[in-house]
Specification:
The protein contains 13 helices and 15 strands. 37% of the residues lie in helices and 18% in strands. The chain starts with a strand and ends in a 6-residue tail after the last helix. It has 2 domains: 241 residues, Rossmann fold (3-Layer(aba) Sandwich); 160 residues, Rossmann fold (3-Layer(aba) Sandwich).
Length: 432
Protein backbone atom coordinates (compact mmCIF):
# COMPACT_ATOMS: atom_id res chain seq x y z
CA UNK A 1 0.00 0.00 0.00
CA UNK A 2 1.49 3.32 -0.99
CA UNK A 3 2.17 5.94 1.64
CA UNK A 4 0.97 9.53 1.34
CA UNK A 5 2.49 12.60 2.93
CA UNK A 6 0.04 14.44 5.17
CA UNK A 7 -0.49 18.15 4.68
CA UNK A 8 -0.14 19.00 8.34
CA UNK A 9 2.91 18.61 10.55
CA UNK A 10 4.79 16.57 7.95
CA UNK A 11 3.03 13.40 9.18
CA UNK A 12 2.41 10.42 6.95
CA UNK A 13 -0.63 8.22 6.77
CA UNK A 14 -1.32 4.99 4.96
CA UNK A 15 -4.14 4.45 2.50
CA UNK A 16 -7.38 2.72 3.35
CA UNK A 17 -6.98 -0.94 4.37
CA UNK A 18 -9.48 -3.71 3.86
CA UNK A 19 -9.78 -4.46 7.58
CA UNK A 20 -9.98 -0.89 8.85
CA UNK A 21 -7.78 2.14 9.36
CA UNK A 22 -4.96 2.65 11.84
CA UNK A 23 -5.50 5.10 14.66
CA UNK A 24 -2.60 7.23 13.41
CA UNK A 25 -4.16 7.29 9.97
CA UNK A 26 -7.43 8.62 11.37
CA UNK A 27 -5.63 11.39 13.23
CA UNK A 28 -3.67 12.37 10.16
CA UNK A 29 -6.83 12.37 8.06
CA UNK A 30 -8.48 14.72 10.55
CA UNK A 31 -5.56 17.12 10.21
CA UNK A 32 -5.82 16.92 6.45
CA UNK A 33 -9.51 17.77 6.53
CA UNK A 34 -8.82 20.91 8.50
CA UNK A 35 -6.19 22.02 6.01
CA UNK A 36 -8.38 21.32 3.00
CA UNK A 37 -11.28 23.49 4.15
CA UNK A 38 -13.81 20.96 2.96
CA UNK A 39 -17.41 22.10 2.78
CA UNK A 40 -20.66 20.61 3.93
CA UNK A 41 -22.95 18.32 1.98
CA UNK A 42 -25.91 19.10 -0.21
CA UNK A 43 -28.94 17.14 0.98
CA UNK A 44 -27.42 15.67 4.14
CA UNK A 45 -30.66 14.05 5.28
CA UNK A 46 -30.39 10.32 5.75
CA UNK A 47 -26.59 10.31 5.66
CA UNK A 48 -26.45 6.66 6.69
CA UNK A 49 -28.17 5.63 3.45
CA UNK A 50 -26.95 8.46 1.25
CA UNK A 51 -24.92 8.13 -1.92
CA UNK A 52 -21.83 10.11 -0.95
CA UNK A 53 -19.71 11.80 -3.62
CA UNK A 54 -17.17 14.60 -3.64
CA UNK A 55 -16.24 17.48 -5.94
CA UNK A 56 -13.24 19.73 -5.38
CA UNK A 57 -11.70 22.87 -6.87
CA UNK A 58 -9.43 25.72 -5.74
CA UNK A 59 -10.94 28.79 -4.10
CA UNK A 60 -9.39 31.93 -2.64
CA UNK A 61 -6.12 31.42 -4.51
CA UNK A 62 -6.34 33.85 -7.42
CA UNK A 63 -6.82 33.41 -11.15
CA UNK A 64 -7.11 29.60 -11.04
CA UNK A 65 -10.11 29.70 -8.69
CA UNK A 66 -13.11 27.64 -9.79
CA UNK A 67 -15.77 28.28 -7.11
CA UNK A 68 -18.49 27.63 -9.67
CA UNK A 69 -17.44 23.99 -9.90
CA UNK A 70 -18.30 23.18 -6.29
CA UNK A 71 -21.33 25.50 -6.33
CA UNK A 72 -22.71 23.58 -9.31
CA UNK A 73 -22.10 20.23 -7.61
CA UNK A 74 -24.00 21.36 -4.53
CA UNK A 75 -26.87 22.63 -6.70
CA UNK A 76 -27.09 19.29 -8.49
CA UNK A 77 -27.29 17.61 -5.08
CA UNK A 78 -30.14 19.91 -4.06
CA UNK A 79 -32.03 19.26 -7.28
CA UNK A 80 -31.63 15.49 -7.08
CA UNK A 81 -32.79 15.41 -3.45
CA UNK A 82 -35.72 17.74 -4.14
CA UNK A 83 -36.96 15.06 -6.54
CA UNK A 84 -36.64 12.29 -3.97
CA UNK A 85 -33.00 11.35 -4.44
CA UNK A 86 -31.64 8.69 -6.76
CA UNK A 87 -32.37 4.99 -6.66
CA UNK A 88 -34.28 5.58 -3.42
CA UNK A 89 -31.35 7.26 -1.67
CA UNK A 90 -30.33 10.83 -0.97
CA UNK A 91 -27.30 12.25 -2.79
CA UNK A 92 -24.78 13.70 -0.36
CA UNK A 93 -22.37 16.02 -2.18
CA UNK A 94 -19.20 16.89 -0.29
CA UNK A 95 -17.10 19.76 -1.61
CA UNK A 96 -13.48 20.55 -0.90
CA UNK A 97 -11.13 23.49 -1.49
CA UNK A 98 -7.87 22.04 -2.79
CA UNK A 99 -6.16 25.47 -2.57
CA UNK A 100 -4.31 24.89 -5.87
CA UNK A 101 -1.60 22.98 -3.99
CA UNK A 102 -0.46 19.37 -3.96
CA UNK A 103 -1.01 19.25 -0.20
CA UNK A 104 -4.53 20.61 -0.59
CA UNK A 105 -5.38 18.10 -3.31
CA UNK A 106 -4.03 15.27 -1.17
CA UNK A 107 -6.12 16.51 1.76
CA UNK A 108 -9.26 16.48 -0.36
CA UNK A 109 -8.51 12.96 -1.55
CA UNK A 110 -7.96 11.86 2.04
CA UNK A 111 -11.33 13.25 3.01
CA UNK A 112 -12.93 11.39 0.12
CA UNK A 113 -11.42 8.16 1.44
CA UNK A 114 -12.48 8.90 5.04
CA UNK A 115 -16.03 9.71 3.91
CA UNK A 116 -16.29 6.47 1.90
CA UNK A 117 -17.40 8.33 -1.23
CA UNK A 118 -18.37 6.20 -4.18
CA UNK A 119 -16.81 8.68 -6.62
CA UNK A 120 -15.03 11.98 -6.99
CA UNK A 121 -17.00 13.76 -9.71
CA UNK A 122 -16.01 16.62 -12.00
CA UNK A 123 -13.60 18.86 -10.09
CA UNK A 124 -10.61 20.95 -11.12
CA UNK A 125 -7.06 20.32 -9.97
CA UNK A 126 -3.60 20.40 -11.48
CA UNK A 127 -2.35 17.74 -9.07
CA UNK A 128 -3.76 14.49 -10.38
CA UNK A 129 -0.37 12.83 -10.12
CA UNK A 130 -0.55 13.49 -6.37
CA UNK A 131 -4.16 12.66 -5.51
CA UNK A 132 -4.84 9.78 -7.91
CA UNK A 133 -2.68 7.30 -5.93
CA UNK A 134 -4.75 8.14 -2.83
CA UNK A 135 -8.03 7.49 -4.64
CA UNK A 136 -6.57 4.46 -6.38
CA UNK A 137 -5.53 2.80 -3.11
CA UNK A 138 -9.13 3.11 -1.92
CA UNK A 139 -10.69 2.01 -5.21
CA UNK A 140 -12.51 5.33 -5.70
CA UNK A 141 -13.24 6.28 -9.33
CA UNK A 142 -12.42 9.80 -10.54
CA UNK A 143 -15.19 10.64 -12.99
CA UNK A 144 -14.93 13.60 -15.33
CA UNK A 145 -11.87 15.39 -14.01
CA UNK A 146 -10.81 18.46 -15.95
CA UNK A 147 -7.83 16.71 -17.54
CA UNK A 148 -4.91 18.94 -16.55
CA UNK A 149 -2.50 16.23 -15.40
CA UNK A 150 -1.20 13.07 -17.01
CA UNK A 151 -2.89 10.83 -14.44
CA UNK A 152 -6.29 12.04 -15.61
CA UNK A 153 -5.68 10.07 -18.82
CA UNK A 154 -3.53 7.22 -17.54
CA UNK A 155 -4.90 6.06 -14.17
CA UNK A 156 -7.15 2.98 -14.48
CA UNK A 157 -9.59 4.62 -12.04
CA UNK A 158 -9.93 7.82 -14.07
CA UNK A 159 -12.92 8.23 -16.37
CA UNK A 160 -12.44 11.49 -18.31
CA UNK A 161 -15.42 12.88 -20.21
CA UNK A 162 -13.35 15.06 -22.58
CA UNK A 163 -10.15 14.61 -24.56
CA UNK A 164 -7.92 17.08 -22.79
CA UNK A 165 -5.44 19.34 -24.55
CA UNK A 166 -4.23 16.57 -26.93
CA UNK A 167 -7.67 16.31 -28.55
CA UNK A 168 -8.02 20.09 -28.69
CA UNK A 169 -4.67 20.70 -30.38
CA UNK A 170 -5.23 17.85 -32.84
CA UNK A 171 -8.64 19.33 -33.61
CA UNK A 172 -7.18 22.81 -34.03
CA UNK A 173 -4.83 21.44 -36.66
CA UNK A 174 -7.68 19.89 -38.61
CA UNK A 175 -9.75 23.06 -38.30
CA UNK A 176 -6.88 25.16 -39.66
CA UNK A 177 -6.27 22.70 -42.48
CA UNK A 178 -9.92 23.01 -43.48
CA UNK A 179 -9.55 26.81 -43.37
CA UNK A 180 -6.88 26.65 -46.07
CA UNK A 181 -3.82 27.46 -43.98
CA UNK A 182 -0.46 26.97 -45.67
CA UNK A 183 1.63 27.67 -42.58
CA UNK A 184 0.60 27.11 -38.96
CA UNK A 185 2.60 28.60 -36.10
CA UNK A 186 1.92 26.90 -32.77
CA UNK A 187 2.50 29.19 -29.78
CA UNK A 188 2.87 26.87 -26.83
CA UNK A 189 4.60 26.57 -23.44
CA UNK A 190 8.28 25.62 -23.43
CA UNK A 191 7.67 22.43 -21.45
CA UNK A 192 7.58 18.69 -21.98
CA UNK A 193 3.81 18.86 -22.35
CA UNK A 194 4.30 21.60 -24.91
CA UNK A 195 6.58 19.30 -26.89
CA UNK A 196 3.77 16.76 -26.97
CA UNK A 197 1.37 19.37 -28.35
CA UNK A 198 3.76 20.08 -31.20
CA UNK A 199 3.80 16.39 -32.09
CA UNK A 200 0.01 16.18 -32.14
CA UNK A 201 -0.36 19.33 -34.22
CA UNK A 202 2.24 18.07 -36.68
CA UNK A 203 0.27 14.84 -37.08
CA UNK A 204 -2.84 16.90 -37.83
CA UNK A 205 -1.42 19.34 -40.39
CA UNK A 206 1.40 17.45 -42.12
CA UNK A 207 -0.94 15.23 -44.21
CA UNK A 208 -2.36 18.45 -45.71
CA UNK A 209 1.10 19.68 -46.70
CA UNK A 210 1.04 22.49 -44.14
CA UNK A 211 4.31 23.85 -42.78
CA UNK A 212 4.49 23.89 -38.97
CA UNK A 213 6.37 26.62 -37.10
CA UNK A 214 7.09 25.86 -33.43
CA UNK A 215 6.98 28.97 -31.21
CA UNK A 216 7.80 28.44 -27.53
CA UNK A 217 7.01 30.75 -24.62
CA UNK A 218 8.87 30.21 -21.30
CA UNK A 219 6.75 29.35 -18.29
CA UNK A 220 5.99 32.47 -16.30
CA UNK A 221 6.99 34.80 -19.14
CA UNK A 222 5.46 38.26 -18.74
CA UNK A 223 4.16 40.88 -21.12
CA UNK A 224 7.63 42.06 -22.08
CA UNK A 225 8.51 38.62 -23.43
CA UNK A 226 5.59 38.30 -25.84
CA UNK A 227 6.67 40.53 -28.73
CA UNK A 228 9.27 38.02 -29.93
CA UNK A 229 6.93 35.01 -30.07
CA UNK A 230 4.28 37.09 -31.84
CA UNK A 231 6.78 38.28 -34.44
CA UNK A 232 7.97 34.72 -35.08
CA UNK A 233 4.41 33.39 -35.27
CA UNK A 234 3.13 36.05 -37.67
CA UNK A 235 6.26 36.02 -39.82
CA UNK A 236 5.69 37.98 -43.02
CA UNK A 237 1.93 38.09 -42.44
CA UNK A 238 1.12 36.44 -45.74
CA UNK A 239 -2.22 35.04 -46.89
CA UNK A 240 -2.47 31.46 -45.67
CA UNK A 241 -0.49 32.19 -42.51
CA UNK A 242 -2.21 30.92 -39.38
CA UNK A 243 -1.41 31.06 -35.68
CA UNK A 244 -2.70 28.60 -33.08
CA UNK A 245 -2.37 29.60 -29.41
CA UNK A 246 -2.11 26.87 -26.76
CA UNK A 247 -1.04 28.82 -23.67
CA UNK A 248 -2.79 29.21 -20.33
CA UNK A 249 -5.44 31.95 -20.09
CA UNK A 250 -3.17 34.49 -18.37
CA UNK A 251 -0.33 34.17 -20.87
CA UNK A 252 -2.86 34.11 -23.70
CA UNK A 253 -4.09 37.54 -22.60
CA UNK A 254 -0.53 38.88 -22.63
CA UNK A 255 0.15 37.36 -26.03
CA UNK A 256 -3.07 38.80 -27.46
CA UNK A 257 -2.06 42.26 -26.29
CA UNK A 258 1.22 41.92 -28.19
CA UNK A 259 -0.67 40.48 -31.17
CA UNK A 260 -3.03 43.46 -31.19
CA UNK A 261 -0.08 45.85 -31.20
CA UNK A 262 1.54 43.96 -34.08
CA UNK A 263 -1.76 44.37 -36.00
CA UNK A 264 -1.29 41.63 -38.64
CA UNK A 265 -3.70 41.98 -41.55
CA UNK A 266 -3.61 38.58 -43.28
CA UNK A 267 -2.84 36.09 -40.51
CA UNK A 268 -5.67 33.86 -39.28
CA UNK A 269 -5.73 33.53 -35.50
CA UNK A 270 -6.91 30.37 -33.79
CA UNK A 271 -6.83 28.85 -30.34
CA UNK A 272 -8.11 26.01 -28.22
CA UNK A 273 -10.91 26.43 -25.72
CA UNK A 274 -9.28 26.82 -22.35
CA UNK A 275 -6.67 29.20 -23.71
CA UNK A 276 -9.48 31.28 -25.17
CA UNK A 277 -12.88 31.24 -23.50
CA UNK A 278 -15.66 33.80 -23.39
CA UNK A 279 -14.06 35.67 -20.49
CA UNK A 280 -10.84 36.15 -22.47
CA UNK A 281 -12.81 37.32 -25.50
CA UNK A 282 -14.72 39.84 -23.40
CA UNK A 283 -11.61 41.16 -21.65
CA UNK A 284 -9.78 41.72 -24.94
CA UNK A 285 -12.48 43.85 -26.51
CA UNK A 286 -15.18 41.43 -27.61
CA UNK A 287 -16.38 42.19 -31.12
CA UNK A 288 -13.75 44.92 -31.45
CA UNK A 289 -10.87 42.85 -30.11
CA UNK A 290 -8.18 40.74 -31.77
CA UNK A 291 -10.12 37.51 -31.22
CA UNK A 292 -13.13 38.49 -33.31
CA UNK A 293 -13.08 36.16 -36.30
CA UNK A 294 -10.67 33.75 -34.60
CA UNK A 295 -11.19 30.02 -34.93
CA UNK A 296 -11.45 27.88 -31.80
CA UNK A 297 -11.56 24.17 -31.07
CA UNK A 298 -13.55 22.93 -28.07
CA UNK A 299 -14.63 19.77 -26.30
CA UNK A 300 -18.27 20.74 -26.19
CA UNK A 301 -20.76 22.90 -28.14
CA UNK A 302 -20.58 26.69 -27.60
CA UNK A 303 -22.10 27.92 -24.36
CA UNK A 304 -25.06 29.38 -26.25
CA UNK A 305 -26.11 25.95 -27.54
CA UNK A 306 -29.49 24.61 -26.44
CA UNK A 307 -27.60 21.54 -25.20
CA UNK A 308 -26.62 23.64 -22.18
CA UNK A 309 -30.16 24.76 -21.26
CA UNK A 310 -30.30 22.53 -18.17
CA UNK A 311 -26.88 23.75 -17.02
CA UNK A 312 -28.01 27.35 -17.35
CA UNK A 313 -31.11 26.55 -15.31
CA UNK A 314 -28.98 24.94 -12.60
CA UNK A 315 -26.67 27.97 -12.54
CA UNK A 316 -29.65 30.30 -12.12
CA UNK A 317 -31.06 28.13 -9.33
CA UNK A 318 -27.68 28.14 -7.58
CA UNK A 319 -27.67 31.93 -7.71
CA UNK A 320 -31.16 32.00 -6.22
CA UNK A 321 -29.91 29.77 -3.41
CA UNK A 322 -27.14 32.28 -2.66
CA UNK A 323 -24.30 30.08 -3.91
CA UNK A 324 -21.11 31.30 -5.56
CA UNK A 325 -21.64 32.35 -9.20
CA UNK A 326 -21.61 29.45 -11.66
CA UNK A 327 -19.97 30.60 -14.90
CA UNK A 328 -21.54 28.40 -17.54
CA UNK A 329 -18.79 29.33 -20.03
CA UNK A 330 -16.12 27.84 -17.74
CA UNK A 331 -14.86 24.53 -19.11
CA UNK A 332 -14.38 23.17 -15.59
CA UNK A 333 -18.05 23.88 -14.85
CA UNK A 334 -19.12 22.27 -18.12
CA UNK A 335 -16.96 19.21 -17.51
CA UNK A 336 -18.38 18.84 -14.00
CA UNK A 337 -21.91 19.09 -15.37
CA UNK A 338 -21.23 16.33 -17.91
CA UNK A 339 -19.62 14.15 -15.22
CA UNK A 340 -22.69 14.37 -12.98
CA UNK A 341 -25.00 13.46 -15.86
CA UNK A 342 -22.89 10.36 -16.47
CA UNK A 343 -22.87 9.50 -12.77
CA UNK A 344 -26.63 9.81 -12.33
CA UNK A 345 -27.34 7.62 -15.35
CA UNK A 346 -24.81 5.05 -14.16
CA UNK A 347 -26.51 4.96 -10.75
CA UNK A 348 -29.87 4.31 -12.40
CA UNK A 349 -28.44 1.41 -14.39
CA UNK A 350 -26.75 -0.13 -11.36
CA UNK A 351 -29.97 0.11 -9.35
CA UNK A 352 -32.06 -1.32 -12.20
CA UNK A 353 -29.72 -4.30 -12.36
CA UNK A 354 -30.09 -4.85 -8.61
CA UNK A 355 -26.38 -4.35 -8.05
CA UNK A 356 -24.87 -2.61 -4.99
CA UNK A 357 -24.35 1.14 -5.27
CA UNK A 358 -20.70 1.19 -4.28
CA UNK A 359 -17.45 2.51 -5.72
CA UNK A 360 -16.76 -0.99 -7.06
CA UNK A 361 -20.23 -1.20 -8.56
CA UNK A 362 -19.81 2.17 -10.25
CA UNK A 363 -16.45 1.15 -11.69
CA UNK A 364 -18.01 -2.03 -13.01
CA UNK A 365 -20.79 -0.11 -14.74
CA UNK A 366 -18.38 2.38 -16.32
CA UNK A 367 -15.97 -0.39 -17.35
CA UNK A 368 -18.77 -2.36 -19.01
CA UNK A 369 -18.52 -0.36 -22.22
CA UNK A 370 -22.21 0.57 -22.16
CA UNK A 371 -22.55 4.02 -23.69
CA UNK A 372 -24.08 6.89 -21.74
CA UNK A 373 -25.89 9.78 -23.40
CA UNK A 374 -25.05 13.29 -22.17
CA UNK A 375 -27.86 15.22 -23.79
CA UNK A 376 -25.90 16.29 -26.85
CA UNK A 377 -22.99 18.02 -25.15
CA UNK A 378 -20.75 15.09 -26.12
CA UNK A 379 -21.19 12.00 -28.25
CA UNK A 380 -22.30 8.98 -26.17
CA UNK A 381 -19.52 8.16 -23.70
CA UNK A 382 -18.08 4.78 -22.72
CA UNK A 383 -14.91 3.44 -21.13
CA UNK A 384 -14.79 -0.18 -22.25
CA UNK A 385 -11.54 -1.80 -23.35
CA UNK A 386 -12.30 -1.22 -27.02
CA UNK A 387 -12.86 2.49 -26.34
CA UNK A 388 -9.39 3.08 -24.90
CA UNK A 389 -6.83 5.02 -26.90
CA UNK A 390 -3.89 2.80 -27.93
CA UNK A 391 -1.44 5.22 -26.37
CA UNK A 392 1.09 4.73 -23.59
CA UNK A 393 0.61 8.38 -22.55
CA UNK A 394 -3.19 8.61 -22.55
CA UNK A 395 -4.86 5.19 -22.61
CA UNK A 396 -7.91 6.49 -20.69
CA UNK A 397 -8.62 9.13 -23.33
CA UNK A 398 -11.76 7.72 -24.91
CA UNK A 399 -13.64 10.84 -26.05
CA UNK A 400 -11.62 11.96 -29.08
CA UNK A 401 -14.36 14.16 -30.51
CA UNK A 402 -14.10 17.97 -30.69
CA UNK A 403 -16.17 20.90 -31.93
CA UNK A 404 -15.18 23.63 -34.38
CA UNK A 405 -16.14 27.13 -33.27
CA UNK A 406 -15.49 30.72 -34.32
CA UNK A 407 -15.70 34.08 -32.59
CA UNK A 408 -18.37 36.21 -34.28
CA UNK A 409 -19.71 39.45 -32.89
CA UNK A 410 -17.61 38.87 -29.80
CA UNK A 411 -19.23 35.50 -29.01
CA UNK A 412 -18.15 31.92 -29.53
CA UNK A 413 -20.40 30.39 -32.16
CA UNK A 414 -20.62 27.09 -33.97
CA UNK A 415 -18.43 27.11 -37.09
CA UNK A 416 -19.36 23.55 -38.06
CA UNK A 417 -22.26 21.56 -36.70
CA UNK A 418 -21.73 18.38 -34.76
CA UNK A 419 -18.52 16.73 -33.59
CA UNK A 420 -15.27 15.89 -35.38
CA UNK A 421 -13.32 12.76 -34.41
CA UNK A 422 -9.53 13.24 -34.18
CA UNK A 423 -8.69 9.74 -32.95
CA UNK A 424 -6.68 9.05 -36.10
CA UNK A 425 -4.46 12.06 -35.35
CA UNK A 426 -3.83 10.96 -31.76
CA UNK A 427 -2.96 7.42 -32.82
CA UNK A 428 -0.77 8.32 -35.80
CA UNK A 429 -3.26 7.00 -38.32
CA UNK A 430 -4.29 8.21 -41.75
CA UNK A 431 -6.66 11.15 -42.44
CA UNK A 432 -10.34 10.30 -42.36
Amino acid sequence: MSRQTAAAGGETTEGRRAGGRRVGSVAAAAALLAVAGCGGPAGAAGDGEALVVMTWAPSGTGSVDRPGVTALAEEIGREVNAKGGRAGRKLKVLTCNEHNTAAGATACAQQAVAAHVIAVIGSYSQFGDTFMPVLGAAGIPYLGGYGVSGSDFSSPLSYPVAGGTPALIAGSGRQLAAAGCKTVALVRPDTGNGDTLTRYLAAAVTPAGIKLVDVTVPEGAGAGAMAGPVQKAVGEDRAGSCVSVALGPEQTLLLLDAYRKAAPKRTQLASVIGSVHQGVIDSTGGAGGPLNGALATGWFPPEGSKSWDDLRTAAADAATAGAAPVDTTDLAVQTTWVAYQVFLQAVDRIASAGQPLTAKGLRGQLDSGDSIDTGGVTPPLSWGQTDMLPSAESPRLTNTWVTFQQVKGGRLTEQQSGFVDVRWVLTGGKPQ
